[in-house]
Amino acid sequence: MSSMSLLETVIRRTLIALVLLFFLFPIFWIVLMSFQTNEQILRIPPSLFFKPTISNYTALVSGELVTAVGTLKLTFTQNLWNSAFLSVASVFLALVLGVPAAYAFARFKFRLGEDIAFTLLSFRFAPPLLVLLPLSLYFTDLGLNDTYIGLIWIYQLIALPLILWIVRGYFEDISPDIEHAYRIDGHSWAGSFFKIAIPLALPGIAAAGLLAFIFCWNNFVFALILASADKQPVTVGALAFVTAAGISYGQIAAAIVLSILPTLLLALYAQRYLVEGLSLGAVKG
Amino acid sequence: MAGSLILDHVDKFYGPKSAGIHAVKDFSMAVQDGEIVALLGSSGCGKTTTLRMIAGFETVTEGEMRLNERRIQDLAPAKRNVAMAFEGYSLYPPLTVRDNIAFALKGARQQRSEVDKHVDEMAELLEIGPILDRYPVSLSGGQQQRASLARALIRKADLYLLDEPMSQLEPQLRAVLRGRIKNYLIHHGMTVMFVTHDQTEANALADRIAVMEDGVLEQIASPAELKDRPANLFVASFMGEPPMNVYDATVAQNGGGMRVVVPSPNGGEAIGVDIPSESTDVQGALSIGQKLRLGVRPQSITIGQGEDQALVLSNQWLGDQTHLVIDAGEHQMIIVSYTPVKEKAGETIPFLIAPEKIHLFTFDNGDAITHGTELAK
Amino acid sequence: MATLELDGVSKSFKTGDVLSDVSLTTGDGETVVIFGPSGTGKTVLLRLIAGIEEPDKGDIRLDGKSLVGMASDARGVGMAFQNFALYPHMPAYDNISSPLAARGMSKERLDEKVHSIAKLLKIDHVLTHMPKALSNGQKQRTALARALVAGPQVLLLDDPLRNVDAKLRYEMRLELPRLLSEFKSTTLYVTQDYKEAMALGNRIAVLAAGGLAQIATPEDIYLRPANVEIAKLFGEPTINLLSTTIETNSKGPTVRLADLKIPLDAHYERFQGRKVRIGIRPEDIAITREAREDALKIEVVAVTPLNERVVTLFKLADGTECFASAPDIQSSTTTRRHGAAYATIKTDGILAFDHNQGQRIEATAE
């Protein structure tokens, strides 16, 4: 009996290892690359053993890249800051707008309520490229092109639907009688919203916020078209390594590692909440 | 059609013996041919586990089970010749209620007309005639339960196992169905074991009730005996609604005889009952100064006569009976009277407790010492 | 003074829950039980008074002032919900103190009141626990404490004992009336259990088909129910109902039950010829082995002991099933008895209901 399950365990563990290898290999390779020089990277055959160097990272941080054809100014740290600022600000705005809206959708049945909610969700489905051209024209007219405000506004298309749908599920899961009891006790509507509804939905709000942050951070296309140089986040900033003088693989790898580090750490830390948030309200009780 | 069931020192552990849950502890019981036995207890007491072991849905960790002298604890459920109506042992969705019930008779190989006759009889008994041609998914909880019961009872088996057989039923139907089902079971001499947490149901249907708590069989006896001669304080307090009045008491000297006294917090006697001088057995079992517990049922207290006066705290009339709460020397006492009581809250009423009506239990572990003027065995 | 008036209140939902034209006035400090089978709108009534819903028609007045349109937090009522509705993220203490905090009470007074009511309801030792660590009985008493603590003029209790086990339910049934009388609130108590209704209510308001079928004292409801449905709802086992016609002979009005003629109160004389359903309470029927002249020949189907009473299911000569119940004085009787026997009926409690409409026929002088 036990030998059977030992075989089972071995097979199971091997399969899991293979699957993990398949998905994690690119990341693993990139991390390796970030500690190699360009020559080491391009060497054939590729080797797992090399003398690591941190020159890529120092180049990014110091803002200078020494290449064969001269010294290039790098704006990577500025990109990192942009990513952080844009994501945090967008999520903050989306929460301020989205949480009360989610509450309204959850608690009040108004005409066309479901239709409006679905329309807002559909923004997530629409390919950004569809709206980018007219959007960039409007932005230029409005003077919003290449501004933080413009980008934060556009990022609502990413963050708001997410917040609305996840948080609404959490509000719906709270028994309305609890809020009624609070009102009957003598507290105002605002009291019941801030002292009862929000604390009880906090896991959902946090999960939605985290997810929205990750999606905003990863966005490429909006920032590419609607921002330039000093407003670009890391997703776009990585393009700078593709130069006429050649592709600095090492620095790209280092840039990628630094770019994914925040969201990776966040996801690892909050993975339980993320899974909960993604399967929102699907199972009642 | 009928069988005798013996449970011989049955134990059930979930998990390893050292660290697991001891769900059923050294359970022994003999059910006679044609007897109806109830397993009664609060949730988690092990009654459902015991039933499932008899059915074959749980393994027996230790001990033996014999049905008609056949050892069944290692047999698959289908091989035990046991009919069951379990919660979750649902009806087959693609079959109508009629076909579901008739399915149970497949083994008997009867003519179609015979089968139909049986099904119709059973349907009339359980009031499911109108739904015979419906499908399980369209039935209410109560209807499903009745259909499931019909399916179990229509079979010819050595033993019938029912798990909370009437828990979903509408209250108005329960009384009628209890009577009809009891009649049916007796008429056909069926050996039945059922699990319930509802005393009323156990009292109504069973010849004997096995009261369980925490995996242990506390007492197995007829409803009357459980009421009049409970083996310990647990059974005494568990059985009966309203629950038995229980007080801490001492045995005092009274002239040449004994008196059981419940002291009042501010000195003096709150309740006192003399032990008749003829009851030498009882006197022999007690000693002066002994601490014990005194129990007396609400229905056994006489009001309107007696030397003790008590303050009425509440008087609730329920149509066919009155529930009184009185204050006897700072001790609350619940009394049930089948004749109307005119004293209202705030008035005093005389009351009397006869020595034949009291139950005495040991102070430390609650075992019964005496019931009225007789010794507990 | 806390008189609550419901004036022609109507409310309907898409789900079908309907209240139509409900009117009642409660006395100061009175406990009125709202009774009825499930789905008759009892909870809706409480929610209308609490301000969770608004009536479609009619008015709700507290001491003469209309509550309609007023938000819940301004109404000054206390409510205990069926599913407790405790705040899961606050300990029991904060749950109970919530109405006092809303009224801006000082910390010392608040603390004193919370502890005093917790002691009264025997939950003072679990005040620091979170709701999920409380047993059902403790949750129920916490909800009750929260509803009572601010001494509201109107107390709304929505079937608070429903989710509580049988032993505790009985205990609370005895304790609640004393508790409520201490607080002097006007109380509306919803329940489906007729014993609870009779035990707790000064008056019982029976809701059926969305309207008030009868509102009267427990005694009147039990002894003089307005119609056959109400008679069936009160009493365990259910009242026996037999179809027959009122006849008269030289000795006065009678009804025929199988082979026996049962005499009725003389005032029934003027209803001669009327088709009725006779209601006989099980406790008014006694089963005997010996034949008697005034006894019905019956066949006992089953004897079922029932909590210190014995209920006998028996059949009349024409096959109608009936119940008799008696106190179980000699518990040594075997409960497997069945077969031929006799039933005698105490006739002064007999009720008569119109055969078609179901309303009770009053036997009073013209």
Q: Using only CA atoms, what is the Rg of chain A? A: 24 Å
- The overall average pLDDT of chain A, rounded, is 82
The CATH architecture of the largest domain in chain C: 3-Layer(aba) Sandwich
CATH homologous superfamily (4th level) name of the largest domain in chain C? P-loop containing nucleotide triphosphate hydrolases
The low-confidence runs of chain A, each spanning 5 or more residues with pLDDT under 50, are 281-285
Please give the alpha-carbon distance between the first and last residues of chain A.
39 Å
The major β-sheet of chain A equals: 2 strands, antiparallel
- Rg on CA atoms of chain C, Å: 25 Å
- Separate helix tally of chain A: 12
In oligomeric terms, what are we looking at? heterotrimer
The SS-based structural class of chain A is: mainly alpha
Keywords:
B: 377 residues, alpha+beta, Rossmann fold, OB fold (Dihydrolipoamide Acetyltransferase, E2P), 2 domains, 6-stranded mixed β-sheet, C: 366 residues, 5-stranded antiparallel β-sheet, elongated
What is the secondary structure topology, with strand pairs?
The complex is a heterotrimer of chains A (285), B (377) and C (366).
Chain A (H helix, E strand, L loop, with lengths): L1 H33 L3 H5 L12 H8 L1 E4 L2 E4 L2 H32 L5 H13 L2 H15 L5 H26 L2 H10 L3 H30 L2 H6 L7 H4 L4 E2 L2 E2 L1 H30 L7
Helix pairs in contact in A: 1-12, 3-12, 4-7, 4-9, 5-7, 7-9, 8-9, 9-12
Chain B lengths: L4 E10 L6 E11 L4 E5 L6 H9 L6 E6 L2 E2 L10 E4 L11 H7 L8 H14 L15 H14 L4 E5 L7 H17 L4 E5 L2 H7 L2 E6 L2 E6 L1 H6 L4 H6 L6 E10 L2 E7 L5 E7 L4 H6 L5 E6 L5 E16 L4 E7 L2 E7 L10 E5 L5 E5 L5 E4 L2 E2 L2
Parallel strand pairs in B: 3-8, 3-9, 6-7, 7-8
Antiparallel strand pairs in B: 1-2, 1-4, 4-5, 9-10, 11-12, 11-14, 12-13, 14-19, 15-16, 15-18, 16-17, 19-20, 20-21
Chain C lengths: L3 E9 L5 E8 L5 E5 L6 H9 L6 E6 L2 E2 L5 H4 L1 E4 L11 H11 L4 H14 L15 H13 L5 E5 L7 H18 L2 E6 L2 H7 L2 E6 L2 E6 L1 H6 L4 H6 L6 E10 L2 E6 L2 E4 L11 E6 L4 E4 L7 E11 L2 E7 L5 E7 L11 E7 L5 E4 L12
Parallel strand pairs in C: 3-8, 3-9, 6-7, 7-8
Antiparallel strand pairs in C: 1-2, 1-4, 4-5, 9-10, 11-12, 11-14, 12-13, 14-20, 15-19, 16-17, 16-19, 17-18
